[in-house]
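Dear colleagues,

I hope this message finds you well. In preparation for our joint manuscript, I am sending the Peroxiredoxin (Paenibacillus cellulosilyticus) sequence together with its predicted structure, so that both groups work from identical material. I would be grateful if you could confirm receipt.
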Amino acid sequence: MDRKRRLILVFLCAAALVVVAIVQYTNSKSDTAAASASKPKAGYPAPVIDLPNLQDETVTVGGKSDQIQLINFWAAWCGPCELEAPDLQSAFEKYGDQIAFRGVNSTKYDRERDARNFVDEQKLTFPILMDREGDATDEYKVKSYPTTFVVDKNGTIVERIEGVMTEEDVARIVKEYANT
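The corresponding structure tokens are as follows:
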């Protein structure tokens, strides 16, 4: 009788573990989907945030504007950010009169001195903003770098791009959205 009870107990414990594993797996999938769905994405209003530039002057990102906005979140320690910097600078030189470039350094997760050195080394001349408290990074739900948002003149996100932007990507964006 003891052996029979042990087998039943082992079977019940194994069944309970299987049920717990299934519940955990199901919850983790729905958490991932919910987190992804909560990201600002195309069709949603771009959060409006004031950030200081390198001269500590306040610049607004998001919201309505006379130009479409390209808001690029980056960090000095980010290898892909280093790869895209020359293309963004070149695109700014070509299209800066048609699109408002905003480079947002996620300073809360970076070092400001490193960010300033990065800007100098890359010879970036488009506006660089410092997200010292991490508010913009949090509001835009940026989890990887680089992440770029294209915001139309009405303040609506039309694209969220995770990964390296090329000059050709910016040319496409200008062609598609600048005259709308």
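For the figure legend, we might mention the following. The chain has two domains: 1-38, 49-177. The longest strand covers residues 68-74.

With kind regards,
E.M.
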